[in-house]
Amino acid sequence: MTNFDALTPEALRARGSMKWNRRGPEVLPMWVAEMDYPLADPVAAAIDEVVARQGFGYAEVDDRVPRAFADFAARRLGMTVNPGWTTVVPHVLAGIEIAVDVFTPKDAGVVVTTPAYMHFLVIPGLTWREAVEVPLLETPGAATVDEQWHLDLEGIERAFANGARSLILCQPYNPVGKVFSREELAELARIVARYDGWVISDEIHAPLTLPAIRHLAYSEVDETAASHCVTITSASKSFSMPGLPCATVSLHTQAGHDRFVTNAHPDHLYGATTLGIEANVAAFTGGDEWLDGALAKIAQNVARTKAFVDAELPDVRYVPGDATYFAWLDLREAGLGDDPAAWVLDKGKLWMNPGGDFGANGKGFCRLNLATTSAILDDGLGRLKAALDAR
Ligand SMILES: Cc1ncc(COP(=O)(O)O)c(C=O)c1O
To answer: Domain Aminotransferase class I/classII large, which positions (predicted)?
Structure first.
């Protein structure tokens, strides 16, 4: 059994990651999407095996990752994946970039809903297309994430009417943590189909759907959605191994798959590593027990954070998400302006992602990474309170 409280800040810094080393030891890093947990045993064993055989030549990409992902998706995500329509790519953002290029006409826009995982705002430009921002609709004061955030379906329809032909979906949604409902996504599918468009669905956070909630893959919404859906994922986020590149792009029709492999440039598909491939196979096939443990720990941290914020931080609003290990903290009433994360970093030496990095409607929010130990979480929450007390 993994001890999810085992690692200290010193041990985490010694791993050499960006999260723990970009700033000095006086700053507690609870920002970028990396977990503070020991690697899953099956993944560690797979990596040891690659190292022992010095398996560092050009990777032979076969169907083991697609088959392992398809089994995992059926077992844990309620999702049908055809390994024959699944292509291995270097990493998720690379897969999104290729999919945008293949499935969006050259002069068409790409809808990005905000607040957005920041790279989504950049990717369309990398393929010489315009990112068309459509902010999520917010219901102020809502008690649950499902009530709080909604796709602006009218805004999305307008964007497609004005020439957009694809949309980057994040299901579950980084940063707000929502798993969109079937009704909401079915309506999205009707709009996209009307314009012969595509939905590029980044589902990297799907395995991190919290125990009481169920993931809903966009491809599972209905046949219309499946016919224009590109699903992109990797075990890298849910098993915290983003330094081991390997991801998958799945289409849900033969025609979609043919279009993808015919139009994607082979040089762009190339780049998954032997370590990434073996780590993904090991995680998808043998990682369930570790993942269950990680999810239980994250759920505990969500409850702990919610209780702390409600009791100690009257100017902060925290609506726990359905999924991901992020708390999307609303500090708009805290009197710290558009970038409260800068104040908290300065006064509390706690590093969260500034909400404004996720788009204009993220201003006044901070994204706090909860995939950590109890001791680090308590330290982080204490620093947040100290920073707010210093106003
Ligand atoms: C929604 C989402 N997509 C993609 C990524 C990055 O994936 P990759 O490192 O495989 O490109 C992240 C990382 O945090 C993410 O949150």
So the answer is: 53-378
Residue 95 sits in a domain whose CATH number is 3.40.640.10
Q: Which two tokens stand for residue 64?
A: 């083991």
Distance CA 287, CA 1 (A): 12
pLDDT at 291: 98
Distance CA 143, CA 264 (A): 43
Residue 232 Cα to ligand 1 middle (Å):
10
The per-residue pLDDT for range 369-389, each reduced to its tens digit, is 999 999 999 999 999 999 999
268/145 same-domain check: yes
Find the 93 Cα to ligand 1 centroid distance in Å.
6
**Cβ of 92 less than 6 Å from ligand 1:** yes
DSSP codes of every residue in 144-195 = SHHHHEE--HHHHHHHHHTTEEEEEEESS-TTT-----HHHHHHHHHHHHHT
Confidence of residue 280 (pLDDT cuts 50, 70, 90): very high
Q: What is the mean pLDDT of residues 170-182?
A: 98
Q: Which parts of the chain are beta strand (E)?
A: 28-29, 86-89, 109-114, 131-135, 137-138, 149-150, 164-170, 198-202, 229-233, 247-251, 317-318, 326-330, 350-351, 353-354, 365-369
Residues 280 and 239 in one domain: yes
Write out the two tokens for 90: 């270097």
Buried b (16+ CB within 10 A) or exposed e, 181-212: eeebbebbbebbeebebbbbbbbbbbbbbbee
Quick one: 281 and 292 in the same domain? no
With a 6 Å cutoff on the Cβ, whether 208 touches ligand 1 is no
Q: Which residue has the least CA distance to atom 1 on ligand 1?
A: 174
DSSP state of 216: -
